[in-house]
Amino acid sequence: MATTDIISRDFDFLHGRWRVRNRRLLRPLTGSNEWAEFEGTSVVRAVWDGQGCLEEWEGDAPTGHISAVSLHLWDPRAHQWSMHWATRADGKLGVPTVGCFANGRGDFFAHEDFEGRAIFLRLRWEPRGANACRFEQAFSTDGGATWETNWQMEFTRAANADVFAMRAPVRAREGACDFDYLHGSWRVHNRRLRASLALATEWYEFDGDVTESAFWDGDGNLEEYDAVLPDGVRLRGLALRLYEPDAQRWTIRWASDATGTLDPPMTGAFIDGRGAFYSQERYDGRMIFVRFLWTHRGERSARWEQSFSIDGGKTWEMNWIMDFSRTGT
Prior knowledge:
Number of helices: 1
CATH class of the largest domain: Mainly Beta
Strand order of the largest sheet: 1-2-3-4-5-6-7-8-9-10
Oligomer: single chain
CATH superfamily of the largest domain: Calycin beta-barrel core domain
Radius of gyration: 21 Å
CATH architecture of the largest domain: Beta Barrel
Strand content: over 45%
Helix content: under 10%
CATH topology of the largest domain: Lipocalin
């Protein structure tokens, strides 16, 4: 790790299980002062030893039950956090809010659209001792000169039983079960091409460990990947997979702890037990297509392959193979 890289544990206060009291403005940016209050829960766990965390949030809002996740990732070079929010209703990841903590408070910002108009978005986190914290969301239509708060959450630490009692009962699956076979713990044997798109033929091999955790009854999952390369460098990554029920497809986004930044989404679906996912990305200065292929044989073995194409998908060069062997029951 470079000397400019700094490890942050800013969100350690948030790890654990919480009861959440919500207060939400019903019609933001209309001059209305009508608020609704409702209860919710939050379960937050660390990834990358605290350089990231995943929050699973649920609440019974006036418009209906909401299931959501928020992935927080630390960029050790920019010295900033990014927060990524998605709801189960559509499975789409929102624009990341980016920022940092100062003087005990974290402010995070984004520029996005709200009901047809461009706004600034601000999220604010304030820890209040070991057993309480506060979250606020606010919008600005004047470039940040003034802000209208429209969502407040008061977090109170809760026992496991309290959180589970408040959570909605498991409903019939609304999405796909394509990745259910992958949930659990795995040993992974990696084969990786030494140089991609360079007519290389030399491969190197190494082993790693993977944990796959489901949320939304399987409509989403998080992969945590940990390996040591032959040169001794540790490689830690994660993959966030979300099912989009309207499009009947999955998105897969990868990040490593070296950058704390999610790659462009891979999109695709499973057909006859084979999952194919594609994106267009820049690699060594040129645009390429990227393909992920997922296959499995039963519940105890699986394979992932990555390939690149520079001719619009006519031909593909495979450059990374992972063979998964289950280590848990």
